[in-house]
Amino acid sequence: MLTEEVESGEILKEAARRRTFAIISHPDAGKTTLTEKFLLYAGAIAEAGAVKARTGRRDTRSDWMAMEQERGISVTSTALQFEYRDCVINLLDTPGHRDFSEDTYRVLTAVDAVVMVLDVAKGVEAQTLKLFEVCRSLGLPMITFLNKLDRPGRSPLELLDEIEAKIGVRPTPVTWPVGIPGEFHGVIDRRTGGFTRFERSVRGKTLAPEVEVDASVAATEEGGDWTNAADECGLLDAVGASHDQESFLEGKTSPLFVGSAMNNFGVRSLLDAVVDLIPSPRPRRDVDGQTRSLDAPLSGFVFKIQANMDPAHRDHVAFVRVCSGRFVRGVSLTHAATGRTFSTKYASSLFGSDRSTVEVAFPGDVVGLVNAGELRIGDALYADSPVVFPSFPQFAPELFRRVRVKDPGRAKQFRRGLDQLEREGVLQVLYELDGDPLPVLAAVGQMQFEVFQYRMEHEFGALTEYLSTPYRVARVVTAEDAATLGRIPGVRLLRRGDGTLLLLFESAIRLQTVMRDHPEVDFGALLGSG
Ligand code: GDP
User: Fold this and answer.
1) Which residue numbers delimit the Tr-type G domain (predicted)?
2) What ipTM describes this predicted complex?
3) Does pTM surpass 0.80?
4) Would you list the DSSP string of 400-415?
């Protein structure tokens, strides 16, 4: 029994050192730069500049494809693990799509918090709003980093209002700028009242010299800028916009830091906040609402599947977030959906394009299982005591296209691709119950169609073409409701691969009329049940 206690103690201790989070931002706000600077400050890389220049990405059809081609360090990998202070940091990548997409959502189910990066010149941008809203709706604690203070931008006070109004999370500045964006001199740390002077480092390659200056000295040296910043801090104190750990953990407030990722300024404070503020992994609830304690036998769920990451190997990796227990490479896992056992001999962890074998992992860590062809997104895996985690809610898709293979001779490749890409969750594949036999692809973002078509061609050798459909809105319904509603004109009933029934409407107005005529039916909200 003693060994069990020792084992459990070690698992809890290791879990408590984990910080698992994602950086979310609008493209160009500085996510890549910040990721790299985190690695620099953690000592995981010696010098910044290792992230490959993503040349030509501005006009490529998507970051995803550009990343496919370049596969540089860090940003393109699913999970980066590095140590900082006495913690093990797991930084999960969210796809840099311009549209919100389901992949991002799934990654967010596997993290314990997010760092939201905003460009001070742009604030909260419309295209990414949904992403931020989703974090709020998941109740994920959010740290905000206001980036690019070295350049002209908007008033930080105004941005605080914008964040609260648009995302519904109240920012509580921890550091506050002295000087205005573009004429930025440094920050006041509202916890200590001290001043840290901003100095440009040589192209941000090395750690920024962070000169701490006493408040009274700063007041003399900075003059009017100091007075303004101090006044603004007074205002923030007066309205109670100060960090509160409890409301942060509830996802209601967001500690805010300002800086310039490119110049390394504010990076260390932010990384310290990741360690000090972000919660360590907590026990997850299973499908019955019971929590599975962190030291329970090994369990985890698949949050991402990626095939053909390495064209030379044509492999298939399922990324699993460990929820409880200790993972040791080679352990045999049971796949909850099929009851089959699964070998983990080839488990890997990823750092940039280097894949290394993972030997042990603890709650909060990510393990990549190679050649895990049977696994699907959301699937649970466990050792010893069975568990099923709640299925991922799937977004009610908003875009629909019928797809067909151009060359009927490639029908087999087309079907294989369709099956694979659906399994990976690239998009949803629907079929009409009676009617046109061609599949209808459903997505929440335009990008999903582009990725589908690109991968069909390049990985499966099937050129495809899209045909328009009259559908604009979809709702998940029960088989019972479907029987009555499916016959209404302007409404079509389709089935997803997992058996879920969806009603497709030609317009939002059509949906509204149907909802009005059938108040007894629950049409769900943003999310359709998975
Ligand atoms: P991502 O699309 O969010 O990953 O953004 P990147 O990290 O690729 O940054 C987009 C552009 O903004 C790049 O040209 C960066 O060099 C630049 N950038 C990032 N951080 C800063 C900053 O603090 N100041 C300035 N002036 N530029 C920055």
Assistant:
1) 16-282
2) 0.99
3) yes
4) EEEEEESSGGGHHHHH
